[in-house]
Amino acid sequence: MKTLLKNAREQKGLKTREVAQLLGIDQALISKFESGTRKPTRDQVLKLAALLEIDLETIMVAWLKEKILYEIGHDEFALKALLVAEEEIRYQSKSAKKKVSPTLQKILDEIDSLKKKLDSFRAFDSSRITQALELEYTFESNRIEGNTMTLRETDLVINEGLTISGKSMREHLEVINHQEAIAYIKDLMKKNAPINEREVLSIHNLILRGIHPEDAGRYRKIQVMIQGSSHIPSQPLLVAKEIEDFFIWFETNKNNLHPIVLAAEMHERLVTIHPFIDGNGRTSRLVMNLILLQHGYIIANIKGDYESKMQYYQALETAQTKNNNDDFLLFIAKMEKESLERYLSIIGQ
What we know:
Layout: H1 2-11, H2 16-23, H3 27-35, H4 42-52, H5 56-72, H6 78-96, H7 102-120, H8 127-144, H9 151-159, H10 169-191, H11 197-208, H12 239-253, H13 259-273, H14 280-294, H15 306-322, H16 326-346
């Protein structure tokens, strides 16, 4: 544990004083954590993991191991107690695992079947097909947010570099920015880069670049309300803490949930925090699709027509106001299934 912390801090090029300032704790405590003379609390471990970009599972296992050894390591019944505890932990872990509805499970099974079929035909992948589908994604994601560009106009802006008469500069920038953000998440996927706060801010920076330069890649500093929703996001002072909790949840659950459920959960949690003054929906959908791409799925394209948009918003509203995201998870699963079915039909499978 102590070596893990010190190595991670030095890799980041931080001094113990700087780590202490960033975490809001005494510098002497950081030195004691690294020397092993003081054990951090669970909350401090989570903060250290986020700040130093240490894999949460790695640091938590190291921390719990030392905690167990300190508590019972020299007791004559320690090994027997550990065996009994292991059985109990396995039982509790199984019971605590997020249960999905039979309807959702059926769709997840169908999605995985489609994905297996897709995996066996990856050789038929075409860059032209991918580009066309990404163009549609940009068109639909912007349409959800009120952009009035047609699919053809979106194509002309992206692929021909044309300016569309009667369309605002903002609408042109939304098209260009979103397409660049897709390229960015694909690059992250290829590099197998971790999903962290820096990358989410970078995605948002691309979305608002040239539109709200002062807010691009930065958390909001004012209270906001969501038009047409009764959900009121937290005060701006709480955003940073909620984002910290957001990534702790991700690190804790990323290996325990079906990728579709994980991606949908991350979308719903991020857009509920509503950390930005603008661009929350597009950023949340891009984070969701980054997770899907990382797991070998394809982009789930939520349509921007009135009926689809209302279903999407209603499922989000239920998740945000009734603390029940079952409808939202089901909605995203259906979108991914439709996207997979369409892709397979295009390549003739």
